[in-house]
Design brief:
The chain has 288 residues and is α/β, with parallel strands linked by helices. It is built from 10 helices and 12 strands. It has one domain (3-283): Metal-dependent hydrolases (TIM Barrel, Alpha-Beta Barrel), CATH 3.20.20. 36% of the residues lie in helices and 18% in strands. It has a 6-stranded mixed sheet with strand order 1-4-5-8-11-12. A two-stranded antiparallel ribbon has the order 2-3. Helix 4 crosses helix 5.
Length: 288
C-alpha cells in the first residue's frame, strides 16, 4: 500500500497517538514509512434508507458541529440496539445486551466493557452468527433488515445535511458502498425512488465522490452483479461527474471469519488518489 484512508462511524480520528511512551503525529509517522494517511469519518445517514453512509475526508476535526453530531449519533444508537437485543430474545434468539454486547472478550481472552454509545449493529450481527442464529454476520444483517419488527431504526442525520456539514468543515463528501442501498427505496417524504434516482439527489446537493471499488462479495449485498460489473457500472455512470474511490471496509474481522476482508483490498491507484486530494490536503501545512 502507498496510501490509506481510515474512517469509522461516530469516531473523530485521533491525529496523534502514544507509541512506545511518546506522543507522535500520526501523519508524520505514516509518512516516514512511505505511507500517505488520510483522516475521515463515516456518517450513518437517512433513518429510512439502509446503508447510506457518507464518508467525510479531511474535515476540520475541531469543528463544533462535527463533535455535536458524533455525540448525537452515539446516543441514538445505544437504546435502539438495546431494544433490538430484547426483541431478538423474545423471538427465541437470546442476545444479552449487557453481558454479551457491552461486555466482550478479545482474541487474547481479555474481557472489556463498552459504553452503550460505542455499540455498532455489527456486534449484534456477529453475536447472532456466533450463537448459530444466522450463517454469518452478513446473513444476520439481511435477516434483521428484512423483518420490520427487528429492523429497529435509530435517528440518523439527513444525508444532504451530512454533505453540507462536511463542506462547511473543509472536507470532501463521498458515498460509500452505493450498491448496498436497495434498488428501490422510500425516503421519508419523497415517495418511492430507484437507487439511481436517490444517488442523483445526493449529486445535485454537492456529493463529491462515490465508492467504485468495494468488497461486495464479502458483505450483505443482495444483488447478482459481480464486483467487477459494479465497478464498471459506477465508473461509466458517475466517473465524469464524481471522484471514484475504493475501500475494503475492513472491520478487524475475528479469526475464523468466513470471507474476511483485508486492509488494502479494493483500493484505487495512487494517480487517482492525487486526482482527488491536493498535496496540501494530504500532507497538511507541516513540512512532511
Amino acid at each position: 500500500m502507498k496510501a490509506i484512508a481510515i474512517t469509522d462511524h461516530d469516531i473523530i480520528p485521533a491525529e496523534t497517538e502514544i507509541v512506545k511512551g511518546r506522543e507522535i503525529d500520526l501523519r508524520s509517522y505514516a509518512c516516514e514509512r512511505g505511507l500517505i494517511l488520510i483522516f475521515g469519518y463515516e456518517f450513518s445517514t437517512d433513518t429510512y434508507v439502509n446503508d447510506v453512509h457518507i464518508l467525510g475526508y479531511e474535515l476540520d476535526w475541531s469543528a463544533k458541529k462535527v463533535h455535536q453530531e458524533m455525540e448525537r449519533a452515539k446516543k441514538s444508537k445505544g437504546e435502539a440496539y438495546r431494544k433490538l437485543c430484547a426483541v431478538l430474545t423474545s423471538r427465541g434468539m437470546a442476545i444479552d445486551f449487557e453481558n454479551e454486547i457491552l461486555r466482550y472478550t478479545d482474541q487474547n481472552g481479555v474481557v472489556h466493557q463498552r459504553d452503550p454509545e460505542e455499540v455498532q449493529r455489527k456486534f449484534i450481527f456477529e453475536k447472532m452468527a456466533e450463537k448459530g442464529y444466522a450463517e454469518s454476520w452478513g446473513a444476520a444483517k439481511i435477516q434483521v433488515q428484512n423483518d420490520p419488527e427487528l429492523n429497529i431504526r435509530r435517528e440518523k442525520i439527513d444525508p444532504l445535511y451530512a454533505i453540507e456539514m462536511i463542506h462547511d468543515c473543509g472536507g470532501l463528501a463521498f458515498l460509500a458502498h452505493p450498491y448496498l442501498i436497495e434498488e428501490i427505496v422510500t425516503p421519508q417524504g419523497l415517495g418511492k425512488m430507484t437507487r439511481a434516482e436517490y444517488i442523483e439527489r445526493l449529486i445535485e446537493n454537492g456529493l463529491d465522490g462515490i465508492e467504485g471499488r468495494y468488497t461486495y462479495n464479502k458483505t450483505s449485498y443482495k444483488g447478482k452483479k459481480t464486483v467487477e460489473e459494479i465497478e464498471t457500472e459506477v465508473r461509466e455512470r458517475y466517473g465524469n461527474r464524481l471522484y471514484i474511490s475504493g475501500g475494503s471496509d475492513y472491520h478487524g474481522s475475528k479469526k475464523g471469519t468466513r470471507d474476511t476482508r483485508e486492509i488494502g483490498e479494493a483500493g484505487i491507484k495512487v494517480k487517482e488518489l492525487f486526482g482527488i486530494f491536493s498535496q496540501e490536503m494530504i500532507y497538511g501545512k507541516k513540512d512532511h
